[in-house]
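Human: I would love a firmer grasp of how sequence relates to backbone shape in proteins. Take your time, and here it is.
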Amino acid sequence: MLVSQILRAKGDAVFTVTPADTVGRVAELLHSRRVGALVVTKGEAVVGIVSERDIVRAVAGGDEKVTARPVSAYMTADVVFAGPGETVDSLLTRMTDRRIRHLPVVQDGRLVGIVSIGDLVKWKISEVEAEADGLKAYIAGS
């Protein structure tokens, strides 16, 4: 299963914010959009990613004015990307090794989608179930 197939099925919508957006605004968007991460962009360039974990860490830091601070102070600037031609297995390995839950998908330098570990696990399970069903049908036909 390729990332491009997942994006075709789930859609390519990516919610973005700018580095100047406040932590409070980002928290509101994470909640209202019901997503675990937002891609931080400057123009068309991806400059970071901010997740629920980043927001929790920011708030736990004890700064009373954290919600008014720019998200650029808390985002992950070293973004790990996926390509549309990559496999679910390779991305699951990358995400597990790096302990990340979201990968922006970039093609030819352009943001074309985002996949979460939940998306990948869902597809992996459906792939395994289809294989098991095929084996059951084969055994039943023997």
In short: The radius of gyration is 18 Å. The first strand starts at residue 16 and ends at 17. The chain has a mean pLDDT of 94.
